[in-house]
Specification:
3 domains; transmembrane helix; transmembrane; acyltransferase activity, transferring groups other than amino-acyl groups
């Protein structure tokens, strides 16, 4: 979540040192020739997107235009105006092209900007022709698998009715072909998806279901805006004014911290699940850990593999536009090359600048923290008298790691600069080291484990039985949030001067402080505090939609990329355009998320039930205690 909410501050803009008249005569940062007109040329069509790096013709006596460009470039909250990103129909814009396209196109652009007293060179180029891409062996294999799987779902849906599912459900047996087939029935999976059981043991955790939905809504909200700023923009001046607004930057800078709630809830649920099963003196051994980890892997990976297969096949056939390579071509190439690292949940470390499905950095980091969390819970199970000391030690370590790494490497606070957003932060080293890595989020893991442990201890007690304690549940989170917000406001103001110490304190304190605030408030919600916010999280429609969280999380960025890869002109940034895109992606995200959930995620869940059907009755009963029963991951459904 890199830019959530700052659209509301679009009117709060500062005045640039370059006047609007001077700005108007500068070479446009983004410019796009008519793509469809170019494609009408048939076999002769050649459309290229280029990055053209400007430079002064005479460095000792630069023109006024170049001086204005340099003046804008000095502020990182502006676009790089010496880096032109243009879409060119070669036949119309630069018709005198021979066989050496890159060199001749570069000469054409040098001539174009010679009147500004500037020269330059092409640093990146990608060209398209009006041709249908050929099928390769990878496409054929994936298509065959999808067709066979679709046939299986159709046969299962026709064979296994929902009424029959109700009869057979009590007698699941993995050896029965009919029962295995029933796992793929759309009717049966719809019944399971829409059946909600309000069990006494999980009633206090209902608010977490709603939190999953609202967190996912914020993800869609922020990614919609990020998608608009991830490509060519026609009103770059508006974007730069937004970025130079201190109130805008405050919210934009705080937005990434929201992701800490995901790690917090994941470790909270994992801890509670483990304590329910092994908190009465039972030993948590290696076989138990491997089983929990295997269940999580089986639950998460099939849906992820489906989306990975789609990312490596469909884009080149269903999306076509001038900026296809920027929006989805890089992703397509990265998934073809590095997609295997997603299936091992190490994609946030392996060649991170070419990460496939960039939003899945969270799944990788959460899986790494999940494994660490299991190790810590094993130590807690083995040494129950030292739990407080262990959690205190790991919390200090987790909070210190980001600050230490920031200080050693000289990183600054996370900045939402236009050029960073244009590349989705994938070329920003400190984002990889201090934000998307597992080790930089250990603080949230430990806070989640601590909250889960305290919730288990006091699950049957009303510890907020006085007005003072109830007030503290609201006051402490508010104080922590305001302190973090104040620090962010100052560090994004014109008065802030970078120092290693300040940046280190921000990385260690701000996100962990907000995570602690969230933990305290959510703990209060589990004890029926929170008023309207509690009602919003426990509202039944929200809890239903929360079951689609994981599938929607996987599918929504693909929909955004397809939409933007097909656009024909630079985006006009406005409140209306943003709200329209947000509404569109929320609606389409949940529709396609439902399809992925019914056809992939739910069948895997049903197969896991069959696999576990031979366990003892008491083990099966224990698994029903918590919604996230196959490993405690954040994205699971209440069945």
């Amino acid at each position: 979540m890199h830019a959530v909410f700052f659209i509301f501050f679009i009117i709060d803009a500062t005045v640039s040192l370059v006047s609007e008249n001077d700005y108007a005569v500068l070479p446009p940062v983004f410019e796009v020739d008519n793509f469809d007109r170019c494609m009408l040329l048939g076999d002769e069509a050649l459309y290229c997107t280029i990055d053209f790096q400007l430079a002064p013709e005479d460095a000792k006596n630069p023109t006024e235009t170049w001086k204005k460009i340099q003046e804008l470039n000095q502020n990182p909250k502006n676009y790089r105006h010496d880096r032109l990103r243009h879409g060119v129909c070669v036949q119309f814009t630069c018709p005198n092209i021979s066989t050496n396209i890159r060199d001749d196109l570069e000469k054409c652009y040098i001539e174009k900007y010679y009147r500004f007293g500037m020269t330059g060179k092409i640093t990146e180029m990608h060209c398209q022709k009006n041709a249908i891409p050929p099928l390769d062996i990878h496409d054929i294999i994936i298509s065959f698998i999808f067709i066979v799987y679709a046939g299986l779902i159709i046969v299962a849906s026709l064979f296994y009715s929902s009424e029959k599912a109700g009869v057979q459900h009590r007698d699941f047996n993995i050896n029965s072909v009919e029962n295995v087939l029933s796992c793929f029935s759309i009717k049966n999976n719809w019944r399971r998806l829409t059946t909600m059981k309000d069990e006494p043991d999980t009633k206090d955790l209902q608010c977490i279901q709603g939190l999953r939905f609202w967190n996912m809504f914020l993800v869609l909200f922020s990614h919609a805006l990020l998608c608009m700023l991830n490509g060519p923009v026609i009103n770059t001046k508006t974007v730069e004014n937004m970025m130079n607004s201190e109130s805008t930057y405050l919210v934009a800078g705080l937005a990434p911290i929201v992701t800490q709630t995901f790690f917090l809830l994941s470790s909270w649920l994992l801890t509670y699940h483990v304590l329910v099963r092994y908190g009465d003196g039972k030993q948590l051994n290696m076989s138990h850990l491997l089983k929990i980890l295997l269940n999580r892997y089986i639950r998460l990976t099939p849906a992820l593999a489906v989306m990975l297969a789609i990312h490596t096949t469909l884009p080149k056939y269903i999306a076509k536009g001038p900026y296809w390579h920027h929006f989805i071509g890089r992703e397509y190439d990265s998934c073809r090359k590095n997609g295997w690292s997603n299936l091992l949940y190490i994609n946030n470390y392996w060649n991170p600048s070419r990460m496939c499905m960039s939003q899945t950095w969270y799944l990788a980091a959460d899986t790494q923290l999940f494994i660490l969390g299991l190790c810590i819970l094993t130590m807690m199970n083995k040494y129950p008298a030292k739990i407080a000391k262990m959690l205190g030690f790991f919390l200090i370590v987790g909070i210190s790691i980001p600050g230490i790494l920031c200080f050693i490497n000289g990183y600054d606070i996370l900045q939402s600069y236009p050029e960073h957003l244009y590349m989705l932060y994938l070329n920003v080293e400190d984002w990889h080291v201090l934000f998307s890595s597992g080790y930089s989020n250990i603080g949230a893991l430990i806070l989640g484990i601590s909250a889960g442990y305290l919730f288990y201890i006091y699950r049957h007690e009303n510890i907020f039985n006085t007005k003072l304690r109830q007030g503290l549940v609201c006051v402490i989170p508010l104080a922590l949030s305001c302190s973090s917000a104040s620090a962010m406001f100052y560090m994004n103001s014109s008065h802030y001067t970078y120092s290693k110490l300040n940046a280190s304190l921000w990385w260690s304190g701000t996100k962990n402080g907000l995570c602690l605030a969230a933990a305290i408030f959510i703990f209060g919600m589990t004890k029926k505090l929170g008023g309207f916010l509690l009602w919003m999280c426990c509202w039944r429609p929200v809890r239903y939609l929360s079951r689609l969280t994981y599938s929607t999380f996987l599918v929504h960025t693909f929909l955004l990329r397809i939409k933007t890869a097909s656009q024909r002109a630079p985006t006009y940034i406005s409140d209306y355009a943003f709200m329209t895109l947000t509404l569109e992606i929320v609606t389409m995200g949940y529709i396609f998320g439902l399809i992925l959930c019914i056809t992939c995620e739910m069948p895997v869940s049903a197969l896991q039930k069959l696999w576990c059907s031979t366990e003892k009755a008491e083990d099966r009963a224990a698994k029903k205690i918590i919604d996230v029963k196959e490993g405690g991951q954040f994205f699971n459904k209440n069945e």
